[in-house]
Structures are given as C-alpha cells and as structure tokens.
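Re: that backbone. Tokens:
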C-alpha cells in the first residue's frame, strides 16, 4: 500500500499542506514499519519465494490497525468511520468475487507480465507453495469487474482492494490536515 501513502503525500503537497510534520509523529513509523515488511514480501515474491503469501491477510489487518494511533491522536473519527465503511464494502466485494468463482479470486495480470513480476507459472507455484486462493482469470470468470484486474505492475488489485485503501487515504490525509491546522493555530495564522 506504499503507493497509496505516496499518493496521499503528493496530493497533500499539491493542496499546500506541509507533509514533513507527519514524519515527526511516532504513529507514522509504525505505518512505515509495516510498509517495509510489505516491500520485503514483494521482493521475496519477485524472487519466487511464495511462502510469505500466507501472511498477507494478517499483515493487512495489522497494517490497517496501525492507523488507530493517528485516528485517536487527531480524533479522526469521521474519517475512520467512513473509511471503515469502505473497508467493509471492499471486503464484501472481494468476498462476493471469491464466492461466485468457487472460492478462488481470479486475477487478470497484464502489466505484471510485462514488468516480469509474475508469470502464469508463478501463479500456479504460489498456489501450491502457499495454498493461495488466487487463480488466473479466464473466460469462465464470473463478475470479472469485482476480481483482481487493476494491475500496478507488481500487484493486481480489485475494486474491493481499492475501497480498502480509501481508509488509508482518508485517515492519513485527515491527519496531515489536522497537523497543519494545529501548526497554523500555534503560529496565530
């Protein structure tokens, strides 16, 4: 989800907010720590070490929980509530896609093939090594628009995954706004 954090930082900078103060918050380092673990897993997957896939779901839950520090510190309850609704809706979309496709999540890689990050053989090997529920999509895939088709070149997301990331966007952007508001009040602006 590092690209999500980077996009929030870029958007915040575009909106003329200072982003450096967010990095003075210890809560941000918990988030970045999990991001580093994700990067490590992505590197392992690129090197065809698929045994880490089985921890991805747990890591996603831990990652989303690391945002609780920012939520409580800056009282971002509205953002958290809306974001939690998006997480619920995103999870529901993913569950529907998995249910209608026989307990598997079809993936439609395009850019990941071009970048060399994945291959059809890699999907089969990952399924065998990590008992992964992702499969290559086909003509028989049902509700393709709910499956993993948004290809980032190193990860393929579903609409549900994007909705889950909205939580990160809302909370992180809200924290940056609150920090900037506090700085403005301290300066008497």
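Recovered sequence:
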């Amino acid at each position: 989800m590092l690209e999500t954090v980077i996009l929030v930082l870029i958007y915040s900078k575009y909106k003329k907010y200072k982003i450096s103060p967010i990095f003075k918050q210890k809560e941000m380092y918990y988030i970045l720590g999990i991001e580093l673990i994700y990067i490590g897993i992505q590197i392992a997957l690129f090197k065809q070490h698929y045994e880490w896939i089985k921890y991805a779901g747990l890591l996603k839950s831990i990652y989303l929980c690391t945002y609780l520090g920012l939520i409580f510190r800056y009282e971002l309850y509205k953002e958290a509530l809306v974001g939690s609704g998006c997480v619920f809706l995103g999870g529901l979309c993913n569950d529907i896609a998995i249910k209608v496709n026989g307990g598997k999540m079809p993936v439609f890689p395009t850019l990941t093939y071009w970048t060399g990050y994945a291959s059809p053989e890699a999907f089969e090997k990952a399924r065998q090594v990590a008992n992964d529920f992702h499969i290559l999509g086909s003509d028989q895939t049902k509700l393709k628009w709910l499956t993993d088709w948004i290809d980032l070149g190193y990860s393929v997301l579903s609409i549900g995954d994007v909705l889950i990331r909205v939580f990160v966007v809302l909370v992180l952007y809200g924290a940056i706004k609150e920090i900037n508001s506090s700085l403005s009040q301290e300066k008497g602006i």
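Strands lie at 105-107, 134-136, 150-151, 156-157. The first strand starts at residue 105 and ends at 107.
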